[in-house]
Amino acid sequence: MFKKSLLTAAGHLGLAAVMLFVCAGVVISQGDKVKIDKEAIGNHKAKNKEFCSHTNWSNSEKVSVADLREMNVASTGSLAVDAGRNGGIKIKGENRSDVLLRACVQAWGISDEAARGLASSVRINTAGGMVKAEGPSEEGWSVSYEARVPHNTNLKLNAHNGGISIGSVDGTIEFETLNGGVSLVDVAGDVRGRTTNGGVNVSLSGSSWKGAGLDVQTTNGGVNLMLPEGYAANVETGTVNGGLRSDIPALNVTTEDEKGGWANRSKQINTAINGGGPPIRVVTRNGGIKIGTTGRN
Prior knowledge:
Blueprint lengths: L1 H12 L1 H9 L2 E3 L5 E3 L1 H11 L14 E12 L3 E5 L6 E6 L3 E12 L2 H9 L2 E3 L4 E5 L6 E10 L3 E6 L4 E4 L2 E10 L2 E4 L2 E10 L2 E4 L9 E8 L2 E5 L5 E7 L4 E3 L9 H4 L7 E7 L5 E8 L2 E5 L4
Parallel strand pairs: 4-8, 4-10, 5-9, 5-11, 10-12, 11-13, 12-14, 13-15, 14-16, 15-17, 16-21, 17-22, 18-21, 19-22
Antiparallel strand pairs: 1-2, 3-6, 6-9, 7-8, 18-20
Helix pairs in contact: 1-2
């Protein structure tokens, strides 16, 4: 029946089209109707978005290659990562006792052979709890990192042209990037960091902050802060050039003088909500601010 359906479809669509649909996860019905297996295609897309995939490119002058390296590192309770000039960092806390480190080494050169030779000369150093790449020079290559760490881990992260993402980690956390966005999800402890050119997304969980507090700032970028319903905290946020919109009434600017226009007056909020708690400070200088509640768009 399946072969017969394929032959029927081939008569209408052509053999090449049938092969394309089959490879994409198509189901041929008895009525010769082509139905796309959305789940299979979704899984295919997700797989192609994996870390260090589709990072190779070429143009008339340069060819790039990517080399994914994985290693398990003993956990000392602290992890420092320096992504160098052109790398990003993603950290995820898990129920584990070691650190799974993945490094995506990308290099470019005048040929595929030259690019691969340069990539092979880059070494990932993990001595003393510091992760940093070493190469023949600072030109022609970059390394981005993804690490799975124990939930209770202290972090010190630095990037230059790359984003920083941290999720499900409780510890003393310091981070800084020059040109890159910041994402913080379900973090706790004493968390402090900044970016110069990049947006900041913070999504918290629970009923209040666990630890000393949160202090994150950007100079040029918007802020998106998501809090659970009934979250207790001392919230400080503000912008000099940008608007402010909040789904939480207590975190709205209430007077016309304070509201001003999107780019005319600063808007600052520093208030306790639901009885107060540890400080949650997320500010920008040039960018809008959106405050919402978890579970809402």
